[in-house]
């Protein structure tokens, strides 16, 4: 009988708890090593471009301008003692308060309005387009727009057009009286006759300094001795008797083509100066006023007997209105902030518009059903629900305005650069733009970093909370 062999299955021992935990730890270590391999290039780049410059700048801020002598906190103390730096800090504070507030409010307003208009997408596109323009290009655009000369600066061209629409410009800003020929007065007027004239007499008032091609289009040949009718608009010429109760005369350009003629006398080829305001003055009071005709003639009628002087007020010679001095010391910072608003309004509007689109419409409709007005809905529902988005937009803009450099450097002219400086431009000027004090410049860079970092941390925490 054959022997029976019993085959038993192999015994499988369950893994111990310790060995499983070791395996998990080894897997986690492998993942961490792999993560380090992928992150290492970014860490090296971050260290080279951010960490090292920050540490080097901090160390450099503790030395003098040449970097040879340790001065400790002396550079930081110099910051609060330098008037130009304090002005830059003041301007930076204005930027931080004004620009983000205006941009956030303007973006909110535009985002709400675009929901209620047709072609909202096209409107948003137009407002967002400046974001595609670099600060360098935007600075050049606004530097030209803010030019004082109305022939070059579009803003002043518009301002002059509006001003001249309500207030006529002076006709002859460059005119001046020919010396020694019957008129006295300084440049820009007023001009007064050196001798008096009685009713029935006439005066001739010659001026120079007006280019023939600058005369009004309707200017005619100056009234001469033959024009002695003594009527309004055609009075007696100089030296010609007129009506017993009237004084006549002519205001003319005392210069004939080719330089011929006699100074102080109306000669052939000389033209009258139309549109001049002329006054008859007696005992310090204006007795009559007239305006010169196209041939320069004028006439005062109905005068009482006595001695009069003839005066041409300064309004005839005022310099033309040249618009607003946008880039002067008083307005340069608001003007640059205006350029910044032009660039960043689209950014603010688009971000707030995205938050507005995420608001539940049920809440808005329920409020309308309860009889709430649009203003109440905006104040009590829309704005509170948008508060997180508004905060992120505001803080992001604060970070950006703290670092603004390009617009200030490009738009502000050299003579008022100090009035427009912010911390970033002041730091560059102190370090490289002629100051050559990299110790103080490094201290300014550390101050700027300390001001920016809290806002950045706040923004990062906001993003993490919203992601959670």
From TrEMBL:
Keyword Repressor appears in the UniProt entry: no
Keyword terms: Cell membrane, Membrane, Transmembrane, Transmembrane helix, Transport
Listed transmembrane segments: 34-55, 93-113, 125-146, 339-360, 381-399, 439-460
Stretch list, region Disordered: 1-25
UniProt entry tagged with the keyword Membrane: yes
Record membrane topology: Multi-pass membrane protein
InterPro entries with a match to the protein in the record: MetI-like, MetI-like_sf, UgpAE/MalFG_permease
Cell location: Cell membrane
Pfam families linked: BPD_transp_1, CarboxypepD_reg
Domain of life: Bacteria
Low complexity bias locations: 1-21
Secretion signal span: none
Domain ABC transmembrane type-1 span(s) in chain numbering: 89-459
UniProt family annotation: Belongs to the binding-protein-dependent transport system permease family.
Protein name: ABC transporter permease subunit
């Amino acid at each position: 009988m054959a022997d029976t062999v019993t085959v038993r299955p192999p015994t499988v021992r369950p893994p111990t708890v310790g060995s499983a935990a070791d395996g998990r730890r080894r897997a986690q270590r492998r993942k961490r090593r792999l993560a380090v391999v992928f992150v290492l290039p970014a860490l090296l780049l971050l260290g080279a471009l951010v960490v090292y410059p920050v540490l080097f700048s901090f160390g450099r801020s503790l030395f003098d301008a040449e970097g040879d002598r340790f001065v400790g906190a002396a550079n930081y103390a110099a910051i609060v003692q330098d008037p130009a730096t304090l002005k830059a800090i003041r301007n930076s504070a204005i930027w931080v308060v004004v620009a983000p507030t205006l941009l956030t409010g303007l973006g909110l307003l535009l985002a709400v309005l675009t929901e209620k208009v047709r072609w909202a997408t096209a409107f948003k596109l137009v407002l967002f387009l400046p974001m595609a323009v670099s600060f360098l290009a935007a600075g050049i655009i606004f530097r030209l727009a803010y030019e004082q000369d109305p022939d070059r600066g579009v803003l002043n061209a518009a301002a002059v057009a509006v001003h001249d629409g309500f207030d006529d410009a002076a006709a002859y800003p460059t005119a001046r009286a020919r010396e020694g020929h019957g008129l006295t007065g300084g440049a820009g007027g007023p001009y007064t006759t050196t001798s008096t004239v009685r009713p029935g007499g006439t005066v001739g008032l010659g001026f120079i300094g007006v280019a023939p091609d600058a005369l009004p289009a309707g200017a005619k040949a100056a009234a001469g001795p033959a024009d002695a009718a003594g009527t309004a608009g055609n009075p007696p010429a100089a030296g010609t008797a007129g009506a017993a109760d009237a004084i006549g005369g002519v205001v003319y350009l005392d210069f004939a083509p080719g330089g011929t003629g006699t100074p102080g006398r109306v000669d052939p080829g000389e033209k009258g100066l139309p549109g001049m305001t002329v006054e008859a003055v007696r005992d310090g009071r204006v007795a009559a006023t007239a305006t010169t005709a196209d041939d320069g003639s004028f006439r005062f009628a109905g005068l009482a007997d006595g001695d009069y002087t003839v005066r041409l007020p300064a309004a005839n010679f005022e310099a033309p209105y040249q618009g607003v001095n946008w880039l002067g010391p008083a307005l340069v910072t608001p003007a640059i902030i205006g350029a910044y608003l032009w660039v960043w309004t689209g950014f603010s509007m688009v971000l707030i518009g995205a938050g507005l689109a995420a608001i539940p419409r049920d809440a808005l409709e329920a409020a309308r059903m309860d009889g709430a007005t649009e203003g109440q809905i905006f104040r009590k529902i829309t704005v509170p629900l948008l508060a997180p988005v508004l905060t992120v937009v505001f803080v992001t803009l604060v970070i950006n305005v703290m670092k603004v450099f390009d617009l200030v450097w490009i738009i502000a002219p050299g003579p008022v650069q100090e009035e427009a400086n912010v911390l970033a431009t002041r730091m560059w000027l102190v370090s490289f733009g002629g100051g050559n004090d990299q110790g103080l410049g490094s201290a300014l860079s550390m101050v700027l970093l300390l001001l920016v970092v809290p806002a950045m941390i706040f923004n990062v925490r906001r993003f993490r909370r919203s992601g959670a």
